[in-house]
Write a structure and sequence with these properties.
alpha/beta; 89 residues; 3-stranded parallel β-sheet
């Protein structure tokens, strides 16, 4: 089963992906659309990546992983791979 991590753009929330998330789950896939700490001006890209990694960890079953990002969060995606070094490590 494929897990999709759906990452919203700056100024938005995870709900942005609710229709995509529902469609994916309806097709038997796993999906996570976490809320990034956009209200925290001190939050870095690594902080955002940690939120995504945590959501992936809670949802991923070991199958294929796809990370989709919108807008500014495209910079977060490469840092959100479980195979990359954890940002807070």
């Amino acid at each position: 089963m494929t897990t999709y991590a759906l990452v919203h753009g700056a100024g938005d929330v995870g709900w942005y992906w609710h229709l995509v998330e529902r469609e994916l789950r309806g097709r038997g896939q796993r999906a996570a659309a976490p809320d990034l700490p956009i209200e925290d001006d001190a939050a870095s890209l690594l902080d955002n990546a940690q939120v995504v990694l945590d959501a992936i960890e809670e949802t991923h079953d070991g199958g294929e992983l796809v990370v989709l990002s919108d807008s500014r969060t495209a910079a977060t995606s490469p840092r959100s791979s479980p195979s990359s070094r954890r940002p807070n490590a």
